[in-house]
Design a protein that fits this description.
Layout lengths: L3 H14 L2 H16 L7 H25 L1 H4 L9 H4 L4 H22 L2 H22 L6 H10 L1 H10 L4 H23 L2 H7 L4 H25 L1 H4 L4 H24 L6 H24 L3
Helix pairs in contact: 2-3, 2-9, 2-15, 3-6, 3-7, 3-9, 6-7, 7-8, 7-9, 8-10, 9-10, 10-12, 10-15, 12-14, 14-15
Length: 293
């Protein structure tokens, strides 16, 4: 019989497969989509919806690690993940991911509605099949196209509450979609060697630093007016509008500083990456504050 410490280590390994830090931001955007919807479900059903979305997001992370175990082992950033480290086998990860995905979809469909369940199923499929299996190793636009999966949680949250899709969640989808490339490219600028060694055609590997920083600046500029749409359309409120203007201006300023940076200074890219996480969190939180949630 396995000892308690070994069982705890195995449990931690399976939790790590779900990419909890990455998942937490996606789940938060789903929660915002659910809470700002004009119709709110019973609190217990709302909790079930968020749990199902979290488990579904976790399943996508597990299946991503299952498929990418070979390249994870080649990259310093990911070599310590459970499968390359030998804590979990690839077959165990595959079974775990499929069980999580099917359970989450079924739970959301039975407890809330079929539209939300279908959107969750599509999100998992898009992230695992379209992004992980098809795009990531084939095109430097992998993050741009694949970012649609990460932008869908607020739409799922809204659908769970209302059983429909409105303009508001599509605006939130657009914001997260435009936020994703500068967020991930800022990270990848300081991981060029890792991606090159693993054969992943990330934009900095294929096109170099100047083109990557130019693309980051373009997406950051596009993100700024898009982030003002909730205020312009009347569902963001004055607090949201102020937060969007201030944080968006900082985002663009950091992107400009990164684009102007020459040489091997890693700090501008790191600052933009870290701020991008804070930016999306604060932006979506201000939506809740504006709604009095």
């Amino acid at each position: 019989m396995a000892s308690l410490p070994s069982l705890a280590a195995r449990l931690r390994a399976f939790v790590a497969l779900m990419k909890p830090r990455v998942m937490s931001l996606a789940v938060f955007t789903a929660l915002v989509g659910l809470l700002i919807a004009p119709v709110r479900p019973d609190p217990f059903l709302g909790l079930i919806a968020i749990l199902a979305i979290a488990v579904g997001g976790g399943s996508a992370g597990v299946l991503n690690m299952w498929y990418e175990a070979d390249i994870d082992a080649l990259m310093s950033r990911t070599a310590g993940r459970p499968i390359p480290r030998g804590s979990v086998s690839r077959s165990e990860a595959l079974a775990f991911g499929l069980i999580l995905a099917s359970s989450a979809i079924a739970l959301l469909g039975l407890a809330l509605n079929l539209l939300a369940a279908a959107l969750l199923a599509f999100t998992i499929f898009f992230y695992v099949v379209i992004y992980t299996m098809w795009l990531k190793r084939r095109t430097p636009q992998n993050i741009v196209i694949g970012g649609a999966a990460g932008a869908l949680p607020p739409v799922i949250g809204w659908a769970a509450a209302t059983g429909s899709v409105g303009l508001e969640p599509l605006v939130l989808f657009l914001i997260v979609f435009l936020w994703t490339p500068p967020h991930f490219w800022a990270l990848s600028l300081n991981r060029v060697g890792d991606y090159a060694r693993a054969g992943v055609p990330m934009l900095p590997v294929v096109s170099g630093r100047p083109e990557t920083t130019r693309q980051i600046l373009i997406y950051s500029i596009l993100l700024f007016p898009s982030s003002l749409l909730p205020w312009a359309l009347g569902f963001g409120g004055a607090i949201y509008g102020a937060v969007a203007v201030i944080s968006g201006a900082i985002f663009v300023a950091l992107a400009v500083r990164l684009a102007r940076c020459r040489g091997g200074d890693r700090r501008p890219a790191y600052r933009l990456f870290v701020f991008s996480i804070l930016y999306l969190s604060v932006l979506f939180a201000s939506l809740l504050i504006g709604k009095g949630v």
